[in-house]
Design goal:
By secondary structure, the protein is mostly helical. The protein is 73% helix and 3% strand. The protein contains 18 helices and 4 strands. The strands form 2 sheets. Strands 1-2 form a two-stranded antiparallel sheet. It has a two-stranded antiparallel ribbon with strand order 3-4. The termini are far apart.
Length: 449
Amino acid sequence: MSDTSKTVKSDSAEAATAGAGAAEGQTTVAPADDPTAAPVTVVDPRLLVREEGFKGYLTEFKRKVKGGELGSLPVVIGLIVIWTIFQLQNDRFLSADNLSNISYFLSATGMLAIGLVFVLLLGEIDLSVGSVSGLASTLFAVFVVNQGVNAWLSLVLAVITGIAIGALHGWFFARIGVPAFVVTLAGFLGWNGLMLWLLGDSGTINIPSETGPVHLFGQSSFFMDQAIIGAYLLAGLAVVLTLVGNFNEQRRRKAAGVPFRPTSEILLRVGALGLASFVAAAVLNDSAGVSNALVIFLAALVIVDFVLRRTTYGRQVFAVGGGIEAARRAGINVPMIRISVFAISGGFAAVGGMFFAGQTASATLSAGGGNTLMLAIAAAVIGGTSLFGGRGSVWSALLGMLVIQSIQTGLDLLNMNTSIQYMITGAVLLGAVVIDSVSRRSQKAAGRA
């Protein structure tokens, strides 16, 4: 056999070996200081972590904490502390009835927080969501009560109005160059004025509680009379969907030759979720069951989380939030992303307004007013979405609202003044922003920002 043939076969063998290594998470690279030297195999550190078992995961956890990658850890610890303190002060705090109230009343403001997460991911702010939610509930009441329009059509028209308002704000911001703070502040004032004008001198439009959307968003239980069955069905559905999603991801990553979660880890994660889901279902069943509002809120979280993490659009949102110029050079239509994000925020604000209408069976002057805007922003930030853009998750809306609603409900049980609620919520919000700032600084120091 000729030397040339031997060389070709040898090169082919090395290439096959390198390909096999890559399929197991290994990469073959040449040393930077000497390109002519023999290639060095670099193993993905995530594989080493899993090979070391529990010790490896503990080491990886310590590395992330030192590098400022805290995730949801601070808010989870904070929630545990809050629940512990209030339970020690009043043993009714962790009762089924009180937890059911928390789960129900967090959904309205939580819908506003979901929309705000999109805006915050760009490093911007939307100050109009409170007014847009109030206007949406008012438009719904005017259509149904004053004009006799079909209730479900009125709901669609109200949500479309919210989307259009958000798109208008985004257009002024993306195309005209007006700062988002100024545009949405003008919207906060203008749309609130329109709401007051529509409500007229009475300041209130009562909506029949049996009206379809109002009844849906009211404090009624999932599956109505069979709330117990509904709660466990939801818990089981969550477990099944999570299990299927994880195994599907594992299959795709195996096929692509990149690191994947082992089956044991998937089963452990799904088992923990299943335990938490069925315990929550059992607790809520001891009271009024799972409310429709909570079901819709959780469904919105799942859908939006999929959009942000699994679609091209979601990756483009994160890219624009991480660096506008880099996103533009990558071919992303930055103005379109900005306009769409504000449209999404307006749409969720309108849906949140319908939740408020369902809670009171009316449209009032206070709809979307008071501290609604501040609580929605605080929920997203407290839950872990960065004010600096480029980092966050829609699940922060749930975690943040759990913290805020727990504080409000706990202080109500203790008969504390509203002023105390504001001060404590403000302190928690400041703490969340401080943690975010320190986290970003640690990531920069670790070279991970």
